[in-house]
Specification:
It is a single chain. The protein contains 20 helices and four strands. It has helices spanning 2-17, 26-41, 60-78, 82-85, 91-110, 114-132, 139-170, 175-184, 191-207, 216-223, 226-250, 256-278, 284-304, 310-338, 355-358, 360-374, 380-394, 398-424, 436-454, 456-462, and strands spanning 49-51, 56-58, 340-341, 344-345. The strands form two sheets. A two-stranded antiparallel sheet has the order 1-2. The chain has a two-stranded antiparallel sheet with strand order 3-4. The protein has one domain (2-462). The chain has 463 residues and is an all-alpha fold.
């Protein structure tokens, strides 16, 4: 709860700091706010408290996911120095909206009542609609925001209707009460509950870009400013899967036989569409969009194979995926800024041609990120996939494991296209300069990725 209060207060303070003539204070203030919120969150470690009329539950599981969200947000904000240089931008507003959106993410992660989940989803979603269309001079950004708003509104309506059906069946919005109702029904709850479960799943699967509810993702990721695309593909996805894990493990574990088949079919479809479509993209941002869809499929495996290994697998995978994705988008921000096509930043694969000779550090960081996302050994991404696949093996879901391994092979193809462009293609000889703090964030992301890949047990031992 402390993080919610602190982030809300700091968001308002940042708006007032925007009135200052100097912008130099905004970025340090936003980073300090995130660090304080992160420290405050872990003061509740190994404690379990209910807040806001028993609507919010802070547990170790919630603290882990909130920690990943705050670390991801810290890295994204660290890469936002260009906002301070753009006279037309209003960085105070952007930073405030980012902090407010994290409040929604925390509510989605730690909810104990479906009303709190709905409020969190709306806070996060409305913030993302605004940030997606924040580049008002770019028609693609405006179009992406409109698409996201319209499709997100339909998904929210479906989610809310599903919650209403769950309330009609169980007589409560509280997760433990819904669990109690299912237990009292002796495994035969009413049809209303099954319909409610289905609609709530549809609404939440839209938020995490699972197929066939993924159609908004490529256009929104491509049209939104790259910085906010990085935020959207990590923070929103982490919060969405944490919410799904909480819902399925607490309330619907007793009717696992009903929803696992539906979720397994969606998982297979998500893996196929995400990986196969990413393989023939020429735009790096669209490739990362479909890559995000494919990683939603891998994370869904952890939910389909719900068991003791699901929580550590989802936590580790979310951390590994978030760090690698932010590093990749951070390098795209630098490269696309210095290479343009028809006056617009170049976000195609050709933008990375010869990067290893222009800036070896950027090439190495991006190579490690691509290797981690592909699940190559000695990176954090490999162990993330290994843990998710192990959960599937424990449940005897060999067919979904075979499909996931085959799709991982397809993923190696399109991730290695970036590596080949950097190291084996000829590019311009103009060196690419990077600010010292920007460089530090990218190096830190690479070090974390490699350390978690070499010593994966270190993360679990620390916890």
């Amino acid at each position: 709860m402390l993080s919610i209060i602190l982030l809300s207060v700091f968001g308002i303070v940042l708006l007032y700091l925007g009135f200052l003539k100097s912008r130099a204070v905004l970025l340090p203030a936003a980073l300090l706010a995130l660090l304080i919120a992160l420290g405050a969150e872990f003061t509740e470690w190994n404690k379990s408290y209910l807040y806001f009329g028993d609507m919010l539950l802070m547990s170790n599981q919630a603290i882990l996911f909130v920690g990943i969200v705050l670390v991801s947000a810290f890295m994204v904000v660290s890469l936002s120095g260009d906002f301070l240089e753009d006279e037309a931008a209003q960085p105070a507003e952007y930073y405030a909206i980012l902090l407010f959106s994290i409040v929604g993410a925390v509510m989605m992660i730690a909810y104990e009542n479906l009303i709190m989940l709905f409020v969190g989803v709306e806070i996060l979603s409305v913030s993302m609609y605004i940030l997606t269309g924040s580049d008002k001079r770019n028609l693609r950004s405006n179009e992406a925001a409109l698409k996201y708003l319209l499709m997100g509104s339909f998904a929210t309506g479906i989610l809310l209707f599903g919650m209403a059906l769950l309330y009609g069946a169980a007589g409560s919005f509280t997760l433990t009460d819904i669990k109690g109702y299912i237990a009292l029904s002796q495994g035969q709850p009413s049809l209303l509950l099954y319909m409610g479960v289905l609609l709530v799943l549809i609404g939440m699967l839209f938020k995490v870009s699972a197929a066939p509810f993924h159609f908004w993702t490529p256009d929104v990721y491509e049209g939104a400013p790259t910085l906010f695309t990085a935020f959207m593909s990590t923070v929103v996805k982490t919060a969405g899967f944490a919410a799904l894990l909480q819902l399925l493990s607490v309330s619907f574990g007793a009717i696992y036989g009903f929803w696992w088949v539906i979720l397994a079919a969606i998982t297979g479809l998500t893996l196929l569409i995400g990986n196969l479509t990413a393989a023939y993209q020429n735009s790096f941002k669209r490739m990362m969009a479909y890559s995000s869809i494919s990683h939603a499929g891998y994370l869904l495996i952890g939910l389909v194979a719900l068991g003791q290994q699901s929580k550590p697998a989802l936590v580790f995978y979310s951390l590994a995926y978030s760090i690698s994705t932010i590093a990749a988008f951070g390098i795209l921000l630098v490269v696309a800024k210095q290479r343009t096509v028809d006056g617009r930043p170049d976000d195609t694969y050709t933008a990375f041609n010869g990067l290893s000779r222009q800036n070896p550090l950027l090439a190495f960081v991006l190579a490690v990120s691509m290797l981690s996302l592909a699940g190559i050994p000695l990176t954090a991404g490999f162990w993330g996939k290994f843990m998710v696949f192990s959960a599937a093996v424990d449940k005897g879901m060999i067919w979904i494991l075979v499909l996931a391994v085959l799709m991982s092979a397809v993923g190696i193809y399109y991730y290695f296209r970036v590596v080949i462009a950097m190291y084996f293609r000829e590019g311009t000889s103009t060196p690419i300069q990077v600010a010292p703090f920007y460089r530090f964030v990218l190096i830190a992301a690479t070090v974390i990725t490699i350390v978690l890949g070499l010593v994966p047990g270190l993360f679990q031992d620390l916890l």
